[in-house]
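My main concern about presentation is that the manuscript never shows what a single data entry looks like. For the editor and my fellow referees, an illustration may be useful. For illustration, here is how one protein appears when written out as sequence plus structure tokens:

***
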Amino acid sequence: MRSEVRGGWTVVAVSGELDADTVPVLSDHLEETPGERVVVDLSGVPFMDTTGLSLMLDWHRRLDGAGGQFRMASLQPSVHKLFRLTELTEVMHIHASVADATT
């Protein structure tokens, strides 16, 4: 995981699977992430289980509910499918690329 600021957005790039073993690491990283506008770059995530899905939904609710913005970008097909199957593509802010998410 790495973070950088792009145009007023904190971009968190994630690599590897997001599951019950790795979600706590991302959760801790997000807790330490400054800013109210966060984009999670999931281009390096080939698999996400429901714990990852729950974390993304939690941060979406947390930031959007506090007047901030939470977006996800560059989802792999298998990860995007998880959001489609749970009908969260209608709720979450999902973008094709980090560039799209930060504009």
